[in-house]
Amino acid sequence: xxxxxxxxxxxxxxxxxxxxxxxxxxxxxxxxxxxxxxxxxxxxxxxxxxxxxxxxxxxxxxxxxxxxxxxxxxxxxxxxxxxxxxxxxxxxxxxxxxxxxxxxxxxxxxxxxxxxxxxxxxxxxxxxxxxxxxxxxxxxxxxxxxxxxxxxxxxxxxxxxxxxxxxxxxxxxxxxxxxxxxxxxxxxxxxxxxxxxxxxxxxxxxxxxxxxxxxxxxxxxxxxxxxxxxxxxxxxxxxxxxxxxxxxxxxxxxxxxxxxxxxxxxxxxxxxxxxxxxxxxxxxxxxxxxxxxxxxxxxxxxxxxxxxxxxxxxxxxxxxxxxxxxxxxxxxxxxxxxxxxxxxxxxxxxxxxxxxxxxxxxxxxxxxxxxxxxxxxxxxxxxxxxxxxxxxxxxxxxxxxxxxxxxxxxxxxxxxxxxxxxxxxxxx
Length: 428
Prior knowledge:
It is a single chain. This protein is of the alpha/beta class. Helix content is 44%, strand content 17%. The chain has helices at 12-15, 27-40, 42-53, 64-68, 76-94, 133-146, 164-172, 183-192, 209-218, 244-255, 270-284, 290-298, 308-318, 330-335, 351-356, 392-408, 412-427; strands at residues 2-5, 101-106, 109-117, 120-124, 150-155, 177-180, 202-204, 224-225, 233-238, 262-267, 301-304, 322-326, 342-345, 382-390. α2 crosses α8 and α16 (392-408) packs antiparallel against α17. The longest helix is centred in the N-terminal third of the chain and has 19 residues, at 76-94. The protein starts with a strand and ends with a helix.
């Protein structure tokens, strides 16, 4: 990890750059796959699954029996862990439900807002080096609570089929369409629909650079996506009140995600930073994914600041996906953060808890998008619809103001829609 001491604010934008790839080289391939899936449907999915994943499943949709019996294939302790995670995630997202909002803005003018589920949603679960069954819970549970009518889960196939943990998570969340398809072709299938995979209205889920570009492509075809997302990232702010072993472990927990992950330690103690680095070196050698983590650490920083206020300003400029606070002046760094995906407070709150089982969602904006996006929550699966009802007395009072505004904008048909009603009421 690079060490930076009291960097000048003029350097912050450079320091906070993420190790993101240039997507321009990927776009022609995404265009090709989208065109093929749009034209040939399942035939194109089989072709690209064989080309990219080296697998051509006999059945594109997983048999229902393989979902209902998935639990039997798992160790008892993993089933229990998934069940606990499900209960906590469900409880937290269920609590996010809000009642219909009603108000009379003036006499005779009633307005209200209610939320309705997005009818059809798609969930993408990455495969590869770490099949993320936890992401199935994070995305399917709020979709289930929201009442989405159709939930389609896509995940890359393997020679042994879909991992039992993903199948069990899908079954527990009430998903009965689990498709063995990944990558660009999966996003294209959810965008257009094929003979076996339904078209959806919104796509959720993380993925590699190919999936990221494909999701951006999907938005060109009236398909929404959850958020711009890229490689995982973590920023820890810590001082001598923190445990360097814990901080090192948290930094490595994100570094092991992939070579393009990024972790940052912000501290007001140079000595503490030294102790964390020593721990990172020691713990790193014990990790099965140490080769990935080592590359990620090359993109990572330890930043020292003399002043807490400057440190907080830097943190808000970075806008971390995951933000851990382990400092004596805890409230300053917790209350003062404006840009973060999810915040973890205290020595006994590892980021891993949010990744798996505490209840909060781990699908979060990256690459500085915390400045304008929230992480996935219940509202991500809902649409807010507004309603209004105006009485005769209400339009008589409000109507002249509408007429004046419409005339000032030169929209006389708008004005006339009010004037006709007012004339009839006046004549009565």
